[in-house]
C-alpha cells in the first residue's frame, strides 16, 4: 500500500515538473511541398515572452504573416496556455531548405527553436476537392495576357493587355506584383490606366468579372521568335467555406495565391526584300509626306523655313526623316526637330517634322529638288514611295554671284579659256638689289638695353597683383566649384555628341552634363539631387514651367533609355533638346 502511494506521489511530482517546463518550437504544415504550394510555419510557446525574432526565411517569399494567436484553457483546474506566431511562405525554387532558428526572451532567458528542413519539389497538381480552399482559388482566379497579334512584321505595333479574371462567388482583397515583365527586343510604352474598373465578361465560356491591370504597346525590333515575359501577382483571395454564421450567411476564408500570365511567344516576320527602296529607313505604317517653305520670294540675307513633315500611324519614333538638299549658294542651318505623337492601343499617331532655316547669299533662282520618303504599308504589305514637288526659291534682290557667271562662261567655251601673255608678268622679280652694308652696333646704352633692365622691376608689382588674384581665386572654393562644374558640363555635353549612336555611353555622358550644369547654376551637390528639389530650386529661380518640364523630361529619358531600345534619331533629339534647354535656362535664371 505504501509502495502504491509513493508511486502516485512520484507521478504527480513528475507531471508538475513537465507542466512547468517552458517549450518553444517550430511546426510546419508539411515537410514536402510543390514549388506552386504554400507552407505554413508556426512558432509555438507555452508561456508568453518578449523580443520575438523570426528567421530570415531564405529561399522563401513571405506572402502572409506574422499572424498572432493566443489560447487559454482550464482543464480540471489546470491552466493551459499557448501563443503562436504564424507565417505563410511561398518557395522560390526547388531543393532542400532549412527553416532556421527563431528566438524569444521568456523570464529573462533566451529560447531558440530547432532547425526544420523542408523539401520543395516540382509543381504539383492541386487535388480536385471542391472543399479545398487552394483548389477553389485555382479554379476561380485567372491572370491572362491578351496579345493583339502573334505574327507581326518587324516594327509593326502589337498590344499586350493583362486582365485578372475573378469568378462571381470569389473575391480579391489585395494584390501586388511579384514579377514585372521586361520587354527585351521590343520598343515598349505603357498606357496609363486611370482607376481600375470592374467589368463583366466571360472566361472559357463562363461568366466572370475582370479588371484590366496593364496595357502595353510593343514594336518588335528583331525578327524571329521573341518571348514576352510573364506578369506575376501575389493575391489575397477570399474563398467561401462550408461554414455559416448565426444568420445563415456563408463564412469566407483568405488564401494567398500566386498567379502568372505565363510566357507568350510571337513570331516576327522580316520586311520583304523584294521591292525595298534604297532610301528605306524602317518606316512601317500608313503615312503622308510633304515638304513646304514659309516663303518662295525673298531678298538676299533674308531667311525662310523649309519644313519636312511625316504624319500618320506607325512607328513614328523609330525611323529617320529624309534630309534636305539645296544648292550651295543657300546657307542651311541645323534643323529644329518637332514631335507631336500620342500612343494608344492602335500604336503611335501624330507627326514628326524637321524645320531648316535657309538664308540665300546671292540674287537668283534656286531650285530645292524633290525629296522622296519610302515606307512599308501594312494594309497592302508592300512598299510605297511619296515624293514632294520641286520648289524654286526666287531671290530678287542682292549681290550677284560672279563666280557662278564666270563658271558659266567657262563652261560655254568647252571648259577652255584663252591665256593672254603680258610683258609685265615677271615684274615682281627685282633685277637691281641695291645691297647696303650693315654697320656694327652696340647693345649698351640702347633702348633695348634699358628696357631689358627696367622691365623686370616693373613686372614685380604686376606679379604681386596676379598672385593676390590667384590667392583670392584659390580661396573661393564655391566659385571654383562653379567654374569646374561649367567646364565639366561642356566636356560631358561634348562627350555626348561624340557618343551619338552608342546608347549607353551617350546617355551616361548626357546625364553627367545635366548634373554638372545644375551644380553650377543651383549650387547643390550631387548627393542632394532629387526631382522635387530640382523642381523647387528652378521654380525659385523663376524658370518657366515648360522649361522645367523639358529639363526633368531629359533626366527621365537618361534613366529610361538604358533599358529601352533607342534610335539615333531619338538620341539626336535628346542632345538638341539638352543644348536648347540649357540655353533657355541661362537666359531665364535670376
What does this protein structure show overall?
The chain has four domains: 21-121, Immunoglobulin-like, CATH 2.60.40.740; 133-268; 289-397, Immunoglobulin-like, CATH 2.60.40; 477-588, Nucleotidyltransferases  domain 2 (Four Helix Bundle (Hemerythrin (Met), subunit A)). The protein has nine helices and 30 strands. The protein has helices spanning 2-20, 133-140, 402-412, 447-475, 477-498, 503-522, 531-540, 545-560, 568-588; strands at 24-28, 32-34, 39-45, 50-53, 60-75, 78-91, 95-99, 103-106, 109-112, 116-121, 141-147, 158-166, 171-179, 186-191, 198-203, 206-220, 224-228, 232-244, 250-260, 264-268, 284-293, 297-299, 304-314, 330-332, 336-344, 347-360, 364-368, 372-377, 382-387, 391-397. Strands 21, 23, 24, 25, 26, 28 and 29 form a seven-stranded mixed sheet that branches. Strands 11, 12, 14, 15 and 16 form a five-stranded antiparallel sheet that branches. A hairpin with a 2-residue loop joins strand 5 (60-75) and strand 6. It is flat. The N and C termini lie far apart (107 Å). Residues 1-20 form the signal peptide. This is BatD family protein.
Describe this structure in a few short sentences.
The chain is of the alpha+beta class. It has nine helices and 30 strands.
Structural class determined from secondary elements: alpha+beta
* Uncertain residue ranges: 13-19, 404-428
Number of helices: 9
Strand content: 35-45%
Pfam family, one: BatD
InterPro entries: BatD
Protein name: BatD family protein
Transmembrane segments: 448-466
Task: Give the helices and strands, then pairings.
Blueprint: H1 2-20, E1 24-28, E2 32-34, E3 39-45, E4 50-53, E5 60-75, E6 78-91, E7 95-99, E8 103-106, E9 109-112, E10 116-121, H2 133-140, E11 141-147, E12 158-166, E13 171-179, E14 186-191, E15 198-203, E16 206-220, E17 224-228, E18 232-244, E19 250-260, E20 264-268, E21 284-293, E22 297-299, E23 304-314, E24 330-332, E25 336-344, E26 347-360, E27 364-368, E28 372-377, E29 382-387, E30 391-397, H3 402-412, H4 447-475, H5 477-498, H6 503-522, H7 531-540, H8 545-560, H9 568-588
Parallel strand pairs: 2-10, 21-28, 22-30
Antiparallel strand pairs: 1-3, 3-6, 4-8, 5-6, 7-10, 8-9, 11-12, 12-16, 13-18, 14-16, 15-16, 17-20, 18-19, 21-23, 23-26, 24-26, 25-26, 27-30, 28-29
Amino acid at each position: 500500500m505504501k509502495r502504491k502511494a509513493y508511486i502516485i506521489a512520484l507521478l504527480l511530482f513528475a507531471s508538475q515538473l513537465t507542466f512547468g517546463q517552458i517549450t518553444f518550437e517550430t511546426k510546419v504544415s508539411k515537410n514536402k511541398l510543390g514549388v506552386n504550394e504554400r507552407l505554413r510555419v508556426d512558432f509555438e510557446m507555452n508561456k508568453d515572452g518578449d523580443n520575438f525574432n523570426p528567421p530570415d526565411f531564405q529561399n522563401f517569399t513571405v506572402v502572409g504573416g506574422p499572424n498572432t494567436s493566443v489560447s487559454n484553457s482550464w482543464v480540471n483546474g489546470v491552466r493551459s496556455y499557448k501563443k503562436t506566431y504564424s507565417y505563410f511562405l511561398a518557395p522560390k525554387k526547388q531543393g532542400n531548405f532549412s527553416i532556421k532558428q527563431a528566438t524569444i526572451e521568456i523570464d529573462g532567458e533566451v529560447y531558440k527553436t530547432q532547425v526544420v528542413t523542408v523539401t520543395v519539389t516540382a509543381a504539383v497538381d492541386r487535388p480536385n476537392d471542391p472543399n479545398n480552399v487552394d483548389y477553389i482559388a485555382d479554379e476561380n482566379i485567372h491572370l491572362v495576357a491578351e496579345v493583339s497579334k502573334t505574327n507581326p512584321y518587324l516594327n509593326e505595333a502589337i498590344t499586350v493587355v493583362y486582365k485578372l479574371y475573378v469568378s462571381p462567388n470569389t473575391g480579391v482583397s489585395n494584390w501586388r506584383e511579384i514579377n514585372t515583365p521586361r520587354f527585351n527586343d521590343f520598343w515598349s510604352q505603357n498606357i496609363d490606366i486611370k482607376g481600375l474598373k470592374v467589368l463583366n465578361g466571360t472566361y472559357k465560356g463562363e461568366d466572370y468579372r475582370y479588371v484590366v491591370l496593364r496595357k502595353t504597346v510593343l514594336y518588335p525590333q528583331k525578327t524571329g521568335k521573341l518571348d514576352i515575359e510573364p506578369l506575376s501577382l501575389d493575391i489575397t483571395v477570399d474563398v467561401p467555406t462550408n461554414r455559416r454564421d448565426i444568420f445563415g450567411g456563408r463564412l469566407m476564408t483568405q488564401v494567398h495565391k500566386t498567379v502568372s500570365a505565363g510566357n507568350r511567344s510571337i513570331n516576327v516576320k522580316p520586311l520583304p526584300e523584294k521591292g525595298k527602296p534604297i532610301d528605306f529607313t524602317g518606316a512601317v505604317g500608313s503615312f503622308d509626306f510633304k515638304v513646304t517653305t514659309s516663303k518662295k520670294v525673298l531678298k538676299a540675307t533674308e531667311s525662310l523655313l523649309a519644313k519636312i513633315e511625316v504624319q500618320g500611324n506607325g512607328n513614328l519614333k523609330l525611323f529617320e526623316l529624309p534630309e534636305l538638299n539645296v544648292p550651295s549658294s543657300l546657307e542651311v542651318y541645323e534643323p529644329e526637330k518637332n514631335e507631336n505623337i500620342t500612343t494608344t492601343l492602335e500604336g503611335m499617331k501624330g507627326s514628326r517634322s524637321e524645320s531648316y532655316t535657309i538664308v540665300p547669299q546671292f540674287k537668283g533662282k534656286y531650285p530645292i529638288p524633290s525629296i522622296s520618303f519610302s515606307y512599308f504599308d501594312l494594309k497592302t504589305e508592300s512598299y510605297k514611295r511619296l515624293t514632294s514637288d520641286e520648289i524654286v526659291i526666287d531671290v530678287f534682290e542682292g549681290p550677284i554671284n560672279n563666280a557662278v557667271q564666270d563658271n558659266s562662261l567657262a563652261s560655254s567655251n568647252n571648259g577652255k579659256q584663252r591665256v593672254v601673255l603680258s610683258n609685265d608678268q615677271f615684274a615682281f622679280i627685282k633685277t637691281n638689289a641695291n645691297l647696303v652694308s650693315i654697320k656694327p652696333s652696340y647693345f649698351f646704352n640702347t633702348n633695348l638695353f634699358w628696357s631689358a633692365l627696367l622691365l623686370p622691376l616693373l613686372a614685380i608689382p604686376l606679379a604681386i597683383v596676379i598672385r593676390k588674384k590667384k590667392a583670392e581665386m584659390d580661396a573661393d572654393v564655391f566659385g571654383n566649384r562653379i567654374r569646374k562644374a561649367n567646364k565639366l558640363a561642356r566636356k560631358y555635353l561634348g562627350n555626348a555628341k561624340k557618343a551619338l549612336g552608342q546608347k549607353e555611353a551617350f546617355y551616361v555622358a548626357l546625364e553627367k552634363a545635366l548634373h554638372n550644369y545644375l551644380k553650377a547654376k543651383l549650387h547643390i551637390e550631387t548627393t542632394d539631387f532629387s526631382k522635387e528639389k530640382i523642381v523647387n530650386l528652378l521654380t525659385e529661380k523663376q524658370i518657366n514651367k515648360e522649361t522645367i518640364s523639358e529639363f526633368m523630361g531629359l533626366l527621365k529619358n537618361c534613366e529610361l533609355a538604358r533599358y529601352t531600345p533607342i534610335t539615333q534619331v531619338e538620341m539626336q533629339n535628346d542632345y538638341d533638346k539638352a543644348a536648347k534647354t540649357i540655353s533657355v535656362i541661362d537666359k531665364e535664371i535670376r
